[in-house]
Design goal:
By secondary structure, the protein is α+β, with helices and mostly antiparallel strands. It folds into four domains: about 140 residues, Bacterial polysaccharide co-polymerase-like; about 80 residues; about 90 residues, no CATH class; about 45 residues, no CATH class. It is built from 17 helices and six strands.
Amino acid sequence: MRGNAILYLRLWWEQRRFLSRAGLMGLLIGTIAAFLLPQRFEARTQLMPPDSRPGTGMAMAALGARMGSWAGVAGDALGLKSSGSLFIGILTSATLQDRMVERFKLQDIYWRARLEEDARRRLDENTVVSEDRKSGILTITVTDGDPRRAAAMAQAYVEELDRLVAELSTSSAHRERVFLEERLQAVKLELDDAAQNLSQFESRNDAMDIAEQGKSLVDAGAVLLGQLIAAESELKGLEQIYSQNNVRVQSVQARIKELRRQLENMRGWDKKESTKDGARKVKSEDEEDKEDKEDRDRGENDAPNPLYPSIRKLPLLGVTYSDLYRRAKIKEAVFETLTQEYEMARVEEAKETPSVKVLDPARVPQRKSFPPRLQIALLCATMSLLGAAVFTFFRAKWRQIEPSNPAKLFAREVFAGINAHMPWNPPNGSRVHAMTHRIWSRVDRRRNPSPES
């Protein structure tokens, strides 16, 4: 055994020049290949996702403190799944990958990715998502030819994950928030409609606050009535002393007429009453219209419209106003209550929705991850050297075989048959061989021109 090893070493020593040239050739080829291969960069980000259900994270923590490395197995057996597995499933889903492909235009970046499915497959090959079973930390590693794009894609994975988790949240708080949001929109429309109806009613009937307006009208009417009684008493006293043509008597009569007109305005314009010679008389509608027309023609009744609705209209207006006002107040109270519940539901949804916490944000890689040029060059040199050594060994064994050996004869026949079809040999009748021989001849003449040429 030792003698054979010495023989092999001697054989390789004798062929040391051939082995050296083979090793150097392999090193040169490996170096060229290492520099021709495209560079790849890895960007990495780490996440610390919370548990999606309250209390489960504390239970898993306590279980891990007691059972150590068996906590993960026990958690799986008990059904206490952390959101890490959920996040891994979302990160590797087609929905999120399609968003990444569309966001970074990967169909134009990846070579031979004509279809969106091809770009998604290449993205899946260039992305690795892993979870540490002990700590639950998620690691997202993205490989790309551009270091800045690799870091941006790793960060985009986190953003799209957070957005997709929020969109697909099915917690009770999320359902409550969606329901309250729809109800808020409906109640807001109803509140706007009720407020619009109330404002139109107030503007059409000069009714801003029926209760306050009624109180004001009653107080003003009492004052006017008191002034009217005092004026009538003063007129009776003056009539006993002076005649009807007296200036003071006529002045008091004019004041009484004005006070009565103001009281009539406050009572309403539907039916009018007038006094003649101190006696009150109810007139018919035709007489009232005729008198109104005569008053307007004479300019004696051109007073402006009253500021408030008349006392006769207040009861009817009060019913409609109260109904509209009550509806508006009810819708306003419902809207305020729903708004408070909506804000509380949003807070609860934020608590229940598993959010992504970035432990280590993605950074632009400064060193390439592929290709390892030194390793490739050394591997090619080693493989070439080993190949040359094996070739030297088998060539020596081939020479030691007898020329009359059937195996050697068969091998020579096979080699001769293959060599006959090589381009450097004359054509053997085959068109393909004739074409390859012509090409080989032209190349050989260019490499080794004749002295005559």
